[in-house]
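Annex B. Sample input.
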Amino acid sequence: MTPLRAIGWPYAAEIEDAAWAETVSAHPAARPARVIEQHRSGYVVAEGPGEGFAAESPPEWQRASSYRKGGIAPDERAAVGDWVLIEGKKIVAMLPRHSAIKRGAAGEHYKQQLIAANIDTVFVVCGLDADFNPRRIERYLVLMGGTGVEPVVVLTKADRAEADNAGAVDEARAELVALGQDVQVVAVNAKDRDSVAALEPWLQPGHSVVLVGSSGAGKSTLTNTLLGTEKMKVGEVRESDSRGRHTTTHRALIPLPSGACMIDTPGMRELKPTGEEDVAENFSDIEALANECRFRDCRHAKEPGCAVRAAIEAGTLDANRFANYLKLSGEVAGAANQLATRLAQKANDRVQGKALYKRVDEKYGKH
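Annex B, continued. Sample output.
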């Protein structure tokens, strides 16, 4: 196995992506590396499974986003998982992303936060204790929809006595399958190497996986077991709600012995949509019911002939699932409006900026 392949390089032989091949050929003196850590002070990149090194980013990544100054937006700069080309210890280019996982950043103003790039699979990790929450899992699956990344729900703490006695594993799997989505559900004891072997189909050479889930769900424990060493710090969880402290403080890409690599992320307290999600894709059962309503503009409240309300009353549709559908639909619609406003403003600023600088150049000459 080549060193690059051990950190997720997707090609066993020649580069098959035309855009990648073009970018590489444009920088014949550069060599590929992967961003394994991102800090406020800069990037750490690696050319293989060994220790990474600090790399200097291009000037346009260090400037505020501005047409005149040549800066680019933060979400267009490299993030953990991105592949870059380096000369010495300087990043000279970034290879086009094959996929990206994002969420709406916390705060009143619309921003997108990139969680990880060039990912094949996302493990949505949830504990079979008080952490288990189908509604939160639905939210994760909505955020992952349309990214081209395969979601797999990983239920940890399957070794707990209360889980075994109550049949929680089978119940949880049945409830998640009932969400109406074709999503794999795997239950593991994150501390047991034989148990986590169930995840091997998604951990093949050249494959990249990101772990998402709340603090205390067992993401770092799972990573340590797959590594076979205590690399990631783990902590105890509160008995009241099975939540833990943020033992993982930043995203980091870690090569696994299998030849795959994994990105552990800090627990996410807030999961805001970006406005690019397709809620209908994740709630196909509710959408199908809505098409059977008597009125096309049915709000599923007190209208006669409402198939959705009838399903809830008959017990074939979970009322909480429907409430979550309405909540997520409203949030995605609101974020979509903010995104459209932002894109329109950026386009307008770009046009006005070009016109302004053209007039300045015509009057004073180009500098």
